[in-house]
Amino acid sequence: MNAPKHTYAEMYPELGTGPVSTESAVSKEFFEQEREKIFRHQWFSLLKRDSDIPNPGDYFVREIEIVGVSVLVIRGDDNQIRAFHNSCTHRGNRLVHDDRGCTVGMQCDFHGWTYDRQGELAYVTDEEQFYDLDKSELGMPKIHLDIWRGFLFVNFDEMPDQSLETAMGDFNQDLSPFAFDDLECIGRYRYQVDANWKTTMNAFQEGYHVAFVHKRSAPDAFTGDDNPYCHIPKIKLQDNGNQSLAVPAAPEHKLSPTEELAFKFGSTFTQGIGNTEICPGTWQGEAENWGFDLNIIFPFSRINVGAGWCYVDAFWPIAQDKTIYELAYYFPKPVKPSQMISQEFSKIVLRDLSREDLATNEVTHSALMARSIDKLQLSDQEIAVRHLYKTVTARVAG
Ligand code: FES
Ligand SMILES: [Fe+2]
């Protein structure tokens, strides 16, 4: 018998190999510490690109429950994209109630104060009744927004302790060359899960589950005789908590008739290694039987890239036992109906796979809450799970 291979433990010996405590997933106090020490200081992906709001006045609103803030992101007349608290500086009423749209400005529906597309306070109703009001000081309260390769990120710190570029770490070299600009959003999904955010994310951080959880939706796309347990061919763990995992594709994968048709008109999610397109910014060519890459931006945002497509997702913590999982697909702009059908195929496949991943979360979380188990036994293939717990615990302790 061959000696067991513990490739990743050898690459990252500082992570150890022992069982990992589940305390950080079940403790409400720990969650509050995560909120204070991590979530209030990190850059979060809004799962949107600058091209999603291409024209002056285009906006969207996003509730960031973990910090209790409603965020308005709007493109100004100067073409700059800005983020604000979606709140009126008179007495705090919510300014914009729609999810998205295009507007000439924002008028508060409480007493009628009006803001322009740059967030400046433009008009105060019955202004003479106020005392020394300085409108130039009363624009909508700003939130730090930065853009990385077209993706919009926000940070709720008063003064972020690091730039978005610094937070992206090795992704500045590794992921940056990917052709994101050719892609547009073709769909979104959002799910609420009754589980801790780390437990939820863990189901997406290894390939060990694939042969079991995805046996119906992907019986042979990622596993086969040569790799029955979907061993991950390449993993990179960054000191700042970021992670990359290459998901393998099975060479003997047989395309179903629908998939074959879809693949004819564009790159698809489960096409296996059949793709020959060159994809800079991925591990194609470096990872054996490359399928696609998962790229995690600590703590819970991801930009996952495949052969000419990407999907971005996030595991938004809502409470210690509640998480919102949201994903958005970006594919090349379809110019023919056949390409739309092809992309629809990928969209549905990934939706089904994600649902299967999420299906394990709530029962797992209940077992942890009941203290049925209080430790996770993690294999070498689950090192990204171990790395997440280690990074979070170290941040909270620091
Ligand atoms: S709260 Fe907005 S105008 Fe009064
Ligand atoms: Fe999965």
Describe this structure in words.
This protein is an alpha+beta fold. The chain has two domains: 7-41 and 169-397, Alpha-Beta Complex (Naphthalene 1,2-dioxygenase Alpha Subunit, Chain A, domain 1); 43-160, Rieske Iron-sulfur Protein (3-layer Sandwich). 24% of the residues lie in helices and 27% in strands. Strands 2-11-10-5-4-3-6 form a seven-stranded antiparallel beta sheet. A seven-stranded antiparallel beta sheet has the order 12-18-17-16-15-14-13. It starts with 6 loop residues before the first helix and ends with a helix. The mean pLDDT is 95. It binds FE2/S2 (inorganic) cluster (FES) and fe (ii) ion. FE2/S2 (inorganic) cluster binds at residues 88, 90-91, 93, 108, 110-113.
Features of the shown structure:
398 residues; alpha+beta; Naphthalene 1,2-dioxygenase Alpha Subunit, Chain A, domain 1; Rieske Iron-sulfur Protein; 2 domains; 11 helices; 19 strands; 27% strand; globular; binds FE2/S2 (inorganic) cluster; binds fe (ii) ion
